[in-house]
């Protein structure tokens, strides 16, 4: 008997290989996939403004990147002895005002470049729940522990999410018409919003995405959410918080992603990179032994051979 329901996936067109340039934007699940891509030395960039959970925040980032917005003092604020920006995650916050502004503007320029050059952009939506800063009537990417009374909590409608996605697609395509855009919904459960509220939020995201995906227009959907909910479907695949997928789940979803999106020619290279990475992390009993020195020489030869094919790869 089969005690699992496997999702049947098919390979997509315009697949990813070691000549691809990838940009990942969105929730913390995109960070997990980016770690895998980084480990295997793909040409990838991720979340220039840190983790962003909702579609409006992602639209804002892409709008500002395409238009090369320049952040100034009016775009930041001081709280608890640190400077913050509502458009960015707290990872970018800084005790020095000028350093924060420099970081924001540097990331905007880099994002503009990455949007223009990317072959694949992966956008992961986390939640349809948003916080609107009452003072400016704008939806924020991060609240930065500003008192909750200063925000209105709202659930984005399907119509509004479609509008956000249509806008960001148009912006991306205006600077990079041939790019492949892959949408996913994060399998991370936003239970702080409530169980019912989380389900409603994910439903809005899924419905909106399926209204705008069109393979002919190079707009795709990868079912990371469904793999977690309907294939793995067990608490043993979650971390101890019962909210975030654990390493086993992330590895499984990564394998599914590879089967759909990786060109078959990349798999031998993946193995080479994995061998090198494991070699670099190896801790010898005797670093000065002749055997280990030969091992290091062999490892450097493998690195050199790979870098001749792909000069951007750095170990």
From TrEMBL:
<dbReference type="GO" id="GO:0016788">
    <property type="term" value="F:hydrolase activity, acting on ester bonds"/>
</dbReference>
<dbReference type="InterPro" id="IPR014982">
    <property type="entry name" value="GSCFA"/>
</dbReference>
<keyword id="KW-0175">Coiled coil</keyword>
<feature type="coiled-coil region">
    <location>
        <begin position="94"/>
        <end position="121"/>
    </location>
</feature>
<dbReference type="Pfam" id="PF08885">
    <property type="entry name" value="GSCFA"/>
</dbReference>
<protein>
    <submittedName>
        <fullName>GSCFA family protein</fullName>
    </submittedName>
</protein>
<feature type="domain" description="GSCFA">
    <location>
        <begin position="21"/>
        <end position="257"/>
    </location>
</feature>
<dbReference type="InterPro" id="IPR036514">
    <property type="entry name" value="SGNH_hydro_sf"/>
</dbReference>
């Amino acid at each position: 008997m089969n005690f699992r329901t496997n999702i049947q996936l098919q390979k997509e067109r315009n697949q990813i290989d070691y000549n691809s340039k990838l940009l990942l934007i969105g929730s913390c699940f995109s960070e997990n996939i980016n770690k895998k891509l980084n480990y295997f030395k793909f040409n990838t960039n991720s979340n220039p403004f840190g983790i962003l959970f909702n579609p409006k925040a992602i639209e804002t980032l892409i709008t500002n990147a395409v238009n090369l917005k320049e952040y100034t003092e009016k775009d930041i604020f001081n709280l608890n002895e640190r400077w913050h920006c509502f458009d960015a995650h707290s990872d970018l916050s800084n005790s020095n005002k000028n350093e924060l502004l420099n970081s924001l503007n540097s990331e905007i320029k880099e994002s503009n470049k990455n949007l223009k050059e990317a072959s694949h952009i992966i956008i992961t939506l986390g939640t349809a729940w948003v916080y609107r800063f009452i003072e400016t009537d704008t939806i924020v990417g991060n609240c930065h522990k500003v008192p909750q009374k200063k925000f209105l909590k709202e659930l984005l409608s399907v119509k509004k999410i479609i509008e956000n996605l249509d806008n960001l697609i148009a912006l991306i395509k205006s600077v990079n018409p041939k790019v492949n855009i892959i949408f996913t919904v994060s399998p991370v459960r936003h239970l702080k919003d409530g169980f019912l509220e989380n389900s409603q939020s994910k439903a809005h995201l899924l419905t909106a995405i399926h209204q705008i995906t069109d393979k002919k227009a190079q707009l795709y959907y990868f079912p990371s959410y469904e793999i977690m909910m309907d294939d793995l479907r067990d608490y043993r695949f979650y971390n101890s918080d019962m909210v975030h997928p654990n390493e086993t789940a992330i590895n499984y979803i990564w394998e599914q992603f590879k089967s759909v999106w990786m060109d078959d020619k990349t798999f031998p290279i993946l193995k080479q990179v994995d061998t090198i990475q494991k070699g670099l992390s190896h801790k010898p009993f005797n670093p000065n032994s002749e055997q280990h020195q030969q091992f290091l020489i062999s490892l450097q030869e493998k690195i050199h051979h790979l870098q001749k094919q792909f000069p951007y790869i750095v170990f």
